Each structure stands twice: as structure tokens, then as C-alpha cells.
Amino acid sequence: MSVTRRGFLAGSAAAAATPAALKGAAKSRPAAAETVFAAGPNQVVLEVNGGRHAVEVEPRTTLLDALRWKLGLTGPKEVCDRGACGACTVLVDDRPTVSCMMLAVDAVGRKITTVEGLGTPERPGRVQQALIHHDAVQCGYCIPGFVVSLEGALRADSKTDAAGLRQAIAGNLCRCGTYNKMFEACERLAGGDPAAGVLANAPACAESTGGRVDAAAKITGTAVFGADLHRPGMLFAQHVLCPYGKATLVSADLDTVRRLSGVIEAELGVGREHGYSGAPAGHVCANSREALRDAVSALRCVWEPVAVETDPRVLHEQQHGAFPRNEERLIAARGGAEAAKALAAAHVVMERVYETQVQNHNPLEPHGATIDPTVTPAEGWVSTQGTGSCAGPLAQALQLSRDQVAVRCEFVGGGFGSKFGLGREGQLAAELARKHSLPVRVFNDRENEQLDTGNRPGSMQWMKIGAAADGKLLGGLIYTAGIVGVGGGGGATNPWLYDFGAIAKDHEDVRGSHGAPRAFRAPGRPQGTFALESMLDEIAEELGMDPIEIRLRNETSEVRKQMLRAGVEEFGWSRRQPTGKQGGRVRTGFGVAAGDWSSQPGRCAIRMQAHHDGRVEVWSGTQDIGQGQRTLIADIAADHLAVPRALITVHIADSRFPAGPASGGSTTGRVTAPAVRDAAQKLLDGLAAASGLEVATDWKAACARLGADGLTVDGEFNPDYWGEGGSEAVQFAEVEVDADTGVVRARRILAYQACGLVANRLTAENQLIGGVIQGVSYALFEERATDPVLGGQMNADLLGYKIAGAIDVPEIVPRLWGAREGKGVRSLGEPTTVPTSGAIANAVANALGVRVRSLPITPAKVRAALEGRA
User: Fold this and answer.
1) Is there a single domain that holds both residue 420 and residue 372?
2) What is the reported pTM?
3) Which of 136, 164, 361, 629 has the most CB atoms less than 10 A away?
4) Shortest CA distance to 806 belongs to which of 79, 361, 171, 363?
5) Final residue of a domain: which of 683, 698, 721?
């Protein structure tokens, strides 16, 4: 699985064989391209976006590398390096082609069109217009590939219907999960007129302002991500990681590598034992990407692995004793006596074990940084969720003061909790930049990205819960174990949401031989919610109760009670068949689950300036990883100032700007909004005092009285604008299960989500939809596959590691549950993914009459449950 076409061609033997291989392949190409190329650099002409460009390429240079690194066309993205994600798609003679799998010399004489050739932010093309209209974008890293795939389908058949267009993007992956917005755009491109957004949702504070402010830049491929940056004289470096659970690096051909042309340095821990899959063994640095690849290939590392234990239960027994923990020990702990009494008094006692998998984050823009010490201040272009948290480590690595560095991330290709701080990649880039006084780029390839940049830890959860005959939960015992690799922090949030009565709980982390966890969208919640929602349904089934009834009986939130009752009607819960009563091959099931997230105040600073022509600029050091932070700031500012959003310009993602929150814990919107309102009110007050006019009635006239420097104010988090509302969630799921094959398809999900004030309808819906899609992917597909003997990850790519694609996602109905009053924005990114796996698991059990108690719910597990082997 580690061999790519480029990797095969990178070796010296393959490079020598290239001319013959190309000559044989030339028979299928135009006569003008029937050329035998030398093994080294060749001058060729590529016809790209209507122009002819002379470029120097080697026979092994992919078209993607030629476009990105020779011609500076960074719309096509490098993500998977093996044609599995579609992010690098371009048109070759009007046909969609994954450019990472096509050699540049094969493209000679052909017409190449990248996303940049299909429109500009000022004049987007037809596909781009449709995607902008429906906000079919979040972080934006994958979107250029979608644009090109859709354009290719329309060029092939201008009358392609919406179903055909959806099929055309089946090979494109979006990790953020904007597929359903993409489907709306497909309907529009096919001649329909679908609504942009669900008008029945809670009203947004700026209904007339439109969609995402940076959508055009992302959809036309002009947005520059950290991984796109190219600086003159830039060096390229890469970590070399241990591929096994534990292994000694016996040897590496460092002498040969150091003699290779373009290699700057190569350092490896030869002779040392490396303790987990993904452990850094050293690095290589070169003056070009080609030289770096040559060097890594020429290392010829020889590893001596040893067998490691990978079974979580065996590891648990070795570290903590048998799983689950002894009941007497739990009863002897705090709260144990009350829990034991609850179990003794219960009408029904349910004892179950639920398990969840290790899930890789897999942002499509990998972890990395480009550090440039040749400018003042020194710049760090980091793919990060926290510009502020990177500045100190960068300054330290460069041996500079903090005010001598600037961390920037204008656009970030996803993070999902894994990209806080400078990271190992940024640290290496900074150290090499200081050492060589040159810009240095360190971005992971896909294998390195999956081995050790964090994960959602797995879990084993033992629950013994008692309930009264009327469904009231009385209490019980819970023991959870987190599968954390070499780290910690594997807690599963269980119990929570419902009133479980008297509970005694204990937790241990189980360490193994893979990389450590990092926060992952709602850390701890999806694991725990899957278990407790499954348990609730099992108790209800035992008592002969409806799953809705037992939830209403034990629910602690009035908002979620309202959501449950609303969903019964809207979802058509009355059509749910009794569990286990269906026969035949294809069966339908209904399930429900709940979620929530915390919404505490926080710290945020905002700078706002009004100009004499009425324009307003806003500065915040926070970043936008796809959640729509730029748009939220613009809409909140426009709403409070009562001016058109067109007058607002937002500057973010620079550590020199006023400190904003990191993009974690769903803090950015809820913490930023009160600070923006505080700054806006100070601007209104100052403008009224400076102009002597009633600002609300004549904004531009008041601004016209300002001097050349305008008026600048600083705002901060102001509790006066906190408002009301929480982040409660309830989701209803409908699935279809093929009892013969075990294949589960999610068909429909109704997602209720409280979010306080809706700042922008389209971006809020998009966050809700994206969270549900990641929940579907977690429930049905994603799982780190580990070699049971040697401990390495066997699917460290986007072929073997399955992420939900366009053909896997259900119809999703987003319902934004706004606050009744107040101007407070609430957490939205995290709670949206919490209930999904529990709702799907319950729907599968309803369809089949047997339950799969471990994630993901694969065909093999379904068949095992039906056959009584689970």
C-alpha cells in the first residue's frame, strides 16, 4: 500500500527505465507527444488554461507537481498522492483527471484546465457560481477538485441531470463534510432552483448578506493555504518515522544520501530503538521536492521490529487487570454504595460492553509549516487552529523575541482538534530555517499524517445500569478504558445527558504502540454517547417501552424534550416498526440519540476601524479552519452597526492582530461575537461623539466627518452580549440494512441543533451538516487498522482508511434551534457530531433485532450479530 506511481518512478532503476516505458505508452497519445525523454530534466511545453508554458520536468514529475511547483497553480491540491481523493483533479482534453497519477510528460500536447482557468473571484464560472450560492465549501481545501469534476461532467454532457452530477463527484472526498450543500448546487447546475438554506430554520441576524465571505477565493482556487506557499530558495524537509509498534533502526544508507545532489542534511537515529508506530527517527532536508524524495527513497532503512501486543483487552489485563474492573472495587469507591442500592432496587438490570475504534483525524491539508526567517518579522505559515499558541514556540525555535515573529494561516485545510501549537513539523521547519537562514517547508505526506498527528482514542465501556418498571434510571456501575497508544486522555464521556441516578464510575487509559490522541471534534462525547444511547435503547426494549418515552422520562433538558417531541412528528416516528419484527433481505430501522456541548464565556480582543468613506475594517488574531469565522465576524459587525456587510472587511489569522480564541472546543463564534459587538458599540459611541450626528440614521455622513486616520477602537469579550441559549442536540436516523451482505446505509437524518443566535444561516447549516457527516463516517466506516503482531498502521492512506464520500451520505435535514431572545452565539461545531453514531446504532438494532455493540458498524459485524457470533 506504500507504493505510488511516483514512488515507483523515483528510484534510480525506474528512472533509467522511464524512456522505454514512455515510448511504449506513447502509442495511445497524440503523435506530437511520441517523444523519448531523457532520464534527467527535460524542457517541455504544457498548454494550461489557454496559454503555453515552457517548464523543466523530469520524466517522473507528475502533472500535479508541474502545475503546483513549476507554474504556481496551487488550486489542485496534493492530499493522497494516489488518486483516491480527487483534490488534485484537472481537466485534460476536457476530461477530469487526477493529476497526481499522471506524468507531466504525458500531458504534453494536451489541453489542461485547472480550477484557476474556470473563473476568478470577480467572475466565477458556472459551477463556481452554483457552489458559492449554496455555500458548498467549508475549509475549501478539497473544493477545487469538486469544481473541476463537475465542470468535466457538464462538458461531457450539458444535459446531465442532478443524479449524474452527484455521480461525477463520487471520487472526491470532503473531510469537513459539505456534500449535501454540493448536492443542492448539482440540482441548480442541472436546471433546478433549490433554495439556498432551509428557510424554516431560526432567523439569522443578517439574512440579506448572503453566504460565506471567502467562498469565492476558495472555490476559484485563489485561496493560499500554508501547504501552497513557495518562497525563493526554499528548502524541503520531512520526518522519517518508525513504521512498527517497536523497532530498532539497524541501518540506513546515510553516506549515499548525503552525497546525492540537492541534499542539505540527513540525520537518523541509527542503532536506537523507537517505541511506537510513528515515532520520529530523524529527518532529511533537501533543496527541492525531487531531491527530498530521492533522499528518502535512497535511505534504504533496515528495521528490526519486535512483536508487540495490540489487543486492547490483553493490554488492559497487563496494565490494570482483567476487563472489566471488579464490581466490588467499584462499589467500594465513592458513590458505590448508593449505586449498589440502586441496582438492588431495580426492576431490570442491564449489563453490557460497548467498544469504539481509534479514528484518525485526516484533515486534507496535512500538518505542517513553512517558516521564512529571511523577512522581518520572521514568518511562520502554519496549518494551525491557534495562531497565538504557535507564536511563542516559533520565536523560541528561531531564537527571536515574540514580537520578531508572525504566525499566519490565511486559510487552513481542516484540523478537527489536531492542529494546536507549532507541532513537530513546525518545530523542525523552524530549527532548519534558523540553521540555514533560508525558508523551510515541512508538510507531512499522507502516511506520516496518519501515523502520528493525533487520533480519537478507542474505548471499551462496561455499563451495569438498573431501571424501574416505568423506565426511570436508578443508577449503577460504569467502567471505561481509553485506548490511547503512547499518550493519555482517553476518557469517554459516560454517563452524561440523562439523569442516570446513583452512578459509581472509574476509568483507566490503556497504553499501546501507536501515536497519542489529540482532541477530536467533541473529544470523549461520541464514544460515550454511543454507549449510553445504546444502553438506553436496550433497557427500553427490555421494558417494552418506546425509545422516545424512556428518553423523555430521564431527560434533564427541557430544550431536548421539545426537540424529541418535534422530531416524533417531523421524522414520522410512528412509522417505526417494532424492533426485530422485520423479515426479508432489506430492512429499515429508526433510531434517536441526543447531544450537547458546553458554552462558557472566554477571552477575545477585537480591533475595529471606521474610515471616512464608511468602510469598516476588523482585526482578530483568530483563524478560520472552515467554520466560517470570517463570515461570523462580518455579519455580527454589520448587524450591530446596522450597515451593509459589503462595507465590512475582516482581517484574521495573524498572531500580530488582537488575540482571538483558538479554534477548539467550539469557542470561536461564541467568544468572538460578544467582543465584536463590544467593539462595534464603542465605534458607534465614538463616531456619534466625533461627528455630532445620529449615527443610526446616517452612517456615511457621520463617517465623512472623520479625519484621514478614521476612528479606531478596541473591543473585548463583553458579558452584556452573552445572551441566552445552549447547544442541545437531538438527531433521528433512518437506515437501510441488507441482511444478506450486512451493508448499512444511512438514508435520512433529522438533526435538531440549538445554537443561540444564528449569525449566518448558510454557514451554520453547513457546520451542522458537516458534523452529522463526520458522525456517519465514524459510525460506519472509519477505523485505524493495526498489524496485530508488529503494531504498524496497515491503512495509513485514503484507500484503506475509509472516509464517508458523496455516495455514502444520507439526506440530512438541518434544523437550527435558535434562542428566543438575546444576541448570544453558541457552540455549533462540536455538538453536531455527538449524537449521530448512537442514533445510527439504534436504527440498525431496530431494523435487525440484534445489536452491534462496537464501532464502526461494518458488514462483517452485522453478519456476526445476525448469526449469533457477536
Assistant:
1) yes
2) 0.95
3) 136
4) 171
5) 721
